[in-house]
Amino acid sequence: MLIHTLLLIISAFCLCSTASVVTELQALLKWKASLDFQSLTSWSPSNPNSPCKWTSIVCDSSGSVVQINLPNSNISGTLYKLDFASLPNLTRLNLNFNNLYGLIPSNFSLLSKLTSLDLGNNNFTGAIPPEIGRLSATNLPSLQYLNLTSNLFSGPIPKSFSNLSRLQDLRIGSNNFIGGIPTEIGLISNLRMLEHIGLNNASLNSTIPLELGLCSNLIFLDFSNNLIRGGLPRVALSGLKKMRFFAISNSSLSGEIPWDVITTWTDLECLVLRVNSLNGNISSKIGRLSNLTLLYLLSNQLSGMIPKEIGNLTKLEVLELSINSFSGPIPLLIGNLKRLRIFRSFNNNLTGTLPVEIGDLKSLQIIDINTNQLDGELPSSLVGLENLQILSAYINNFSGRIPHHLGRLSNLVSLQLSHNLLSGKIPPSLRNCSRLEILDLGENALSGNIPTWIGESLKSLKFLDLAQNKLSGTIPYEIGSLVNLESLDLSLNKLSGPIPPNISSLNFLNSLNLSFNNLSGKIPSGNQLQTLDDSTIYMGNPELCGPPLAVQCATDKDKVDGIGDEDENEDGGGENENSMLWFYVSMILGFVVGFWTICGVLLFSEGCKITYFRFLDCVQDWLSVFVLVKMARLRKSLMV
């Protein structure tokens, strides 16, 4: 009897399980049929063991659907026809990077076992349904991961999010929300498990809620590209001891950075506060952040010196301090940052020399220190930066010669040293920097000729500026070989001679300045130069002529004058032409007779006869052509 009862129970369970599978199958096929576009060919009732063998479907041991994973699957349509009530065991739904649109149905909340919901990078509109966060026996109590980024959601962020007690990762940035960051995000006595908050680019307008500090497990926070105003509240930040990534950039933050709090985040790896209105100094306590890899403080109102303790950040890969008011020298201990790839501190008031120790940073790819007050010579230790791609040091007071060792930097793409006090010749070793796209050496005191190797070796060059130096000689013909060149400025030098005609073949050239030199001759025309018709390009070269200048070239003027002479002498012109014609004919006939008299003796040889007659045929042919050309010109002059 007991066995019979067990068999009945098992039988009933199997029937229920089969019925559930059929219901799930029908729900998925109905949604597939409603889509505008899909490539779900395996989703078919004829597919054995469906839907568990369908693409992107995962089932549990009973055959019930527990996961739908369709990221980047080229699906277009809505979710209106997806019956969530028919998928009671679903734990994961991933529809990221598709073309889904419309509203999120409120019956989403029926997915009571859902732990991960990813609808990011679609075109969903409207408000986020508050049902997502409403707790009941069937309202997403298990949700741990929620990604709605990069959609078109509007309205406020639902306060009901605070009910998602197991939520660890909240990503809802890049939408069109209104209002601010709900204080409920902090009152989330239930949200103590939250580790990731991504609210970047979400159109939020508010201050940072103090309640945020209750999210004590946070390791990632990004509020960038919003209108976050006010200061960085110490009370809130002091509770975030586990923080690893903290970013509030492109906002309206003001006040000082609470270094005494931030430097207690010993696990911090990335600190991104660029493009705000923060002021004050960088504290020497920054040296405590031994795990820091990225420090972005670009475009604030920070001042003071760069603390030497920054040399303790031995894991630092990016140091961005540009567009502030930092002063004083670059600390020598920067040489300790062996992993540093990017060092940018342009548009500050830095003084002193570029430390020799910077040559120890073998991983450096970018040095951008333009627009400061740095001086002295560029250190020869730069030769050790074999991975360097960009060296930007323009608008400083560097002096001396350009180090010839720079020619060993074979990965260099951009070399910008303009607006300094550099002298001497352009070092020939730079020909080895064959990847250079930008060579900017303008406004220095460089002398000598423009090297021909610039056009021979630097084939990738797009921008060449040698303006306002003391360069002399001619413009090398090889410059016309720089087929990728977009901008050429050789103005305010002592260059002479003609402009190479092959410059007109530089099809990408959109900026040209050759003004204030001693160039001469006719300005080349045709091709790309036809579009560069601003006469100021060539001004200050008194011996240049031709369009776009108003000065006419002598050869062109002679042609115009010649037409006038023909008009004045139309009566006697034909007579003069006729006289000249007979003069040439008589001269040639005399030459033939003379040749016969002198060489007649050759006719005694049969071979010489053949040679002579061949020569005579050639003379006859030449004479015929000559006479025809002259007669044609004579007729033309008589017709005028």
TrEMBL record:
Residues 334-418 form the Disease resistance R13L4/SHOC-2-like LRR domain. The chain crosses the membrane at residues 581-604. Residues 1-18 form the signal peptide. It is found in: Cell membrane. InterPro entries: Leu-rich_rpt (IPR001611), Leu-rich_rpt_typical-subtyp (IPR003591), LRR-RLK (IPR052592), LRR_dom_sf (IPR032675), LRR_N_plant-typ (IPR013210), LRR_R13L4/SHOC2-like (IPR055414). Residues 24-60 form the Leucine-rich repeat-containing N-terminal plant-type domain. Its main location: membrane. It is a single-pass membrane protein. Gene3D superfamilies: Ribonuclease Inhibitor. One of its GO terms (biological process) is anatomical structure morphogenesis. Keywords: Cell membrane, Glycoprotein, Leucine-rich repeat, Membrane, Repeat, Signal, Transmembrane, Transmembrane helix. Belongs to the RLP family. This is Leucine-rich repeat-containing N-terminal plant-type domain-containing protein. It comes from Acorus gramineus. The lineage of its organism: Eukaryota, Viridiplantae, Streptophyta, Embryophyta, Tracheophyta.
